[in-house]
Design a protein that fits this description.
It is built from five helices and four strands. By secondary structure, it is an alpha/beta fold. The protein has a single domain, classed as Rossmann fold, CATH 3.40.50.960.
Length: about 170
């Protein structure tokens, strides 16, 4: 685990933008802490942004919900949040790989940044370190990455043409 959060992005106070958080309800203690950290941190960098929160049953349902949101609502950035804790079978690894692959494919095909904080933790202690620790909460990291990507895509798409490109590229 990295011992430092990414640097704070610059405040984008004049950016009216739309973000979406898709968060698993599973392992709720941890995912709720991630959601709270994301929302608090986004308020610092994107105070005028609209942030929609969609809760899904588990991590496996995150990609299909992200895809539907992007197709229907076209958010500027999506933040995917979940906590998968390894059990005695390979199920956690299978779910984590599936979610990761699907989110990357959706992001590339839709040209929409997806911040991936669906965490695969080996133990509850690892989950607590990454979600409940105020100094190392991965929700803070996700919010900072989202704000940075709003800025990056704003620079790339100065003329508003990014979404108009053919989707089969």
């Amino acid at each position: 685990m990295s011992s430092a959060l990414p640097p704070k992005p610059r405040m984008l106070g004049n950016k009216r933008t739309r973000l979406a958080i898709v968060a698993s309800k599973y392992n709720e203690r941890y995912t709720n802490a991630l959601v709270d950290a994301v929302i608090d941190e986004l308020g610092e960098y994107l105070p005028q942004a609209r942030v929609d929160l969609i809760r899904v049953p588990g991590a496996f349902e995150i990609p299909v919900t992200v895809k539907a949101l992007i197709d229907l609502e076209q958010p500027t950035v999506v933040i995917a949040l979940g906590v998968i804790i390894e059990g005695e079978t390979a199920h956690a690894d299978l779910v984590a790989r599936s979610v990761t692959d699907a989110l990357q494919q959706i992001a590339v095909q839709s040209r929409t940044p997806i911040i991936h904080e669906v965490l695969l933790c080996r133990t509850e202690e690892q989950a607590a370190q990454r979600c409940l620790n105020e100094d190392m909460n991965r929700g803070i990291e996700a919010a900072r990455a989202a704000a940075a990507m709003v800025d990056v895509f704003g620079e790339i798409d100065r003329n508003g043409n990014l979404r108009m490109l053919p989707s089969n590229v």
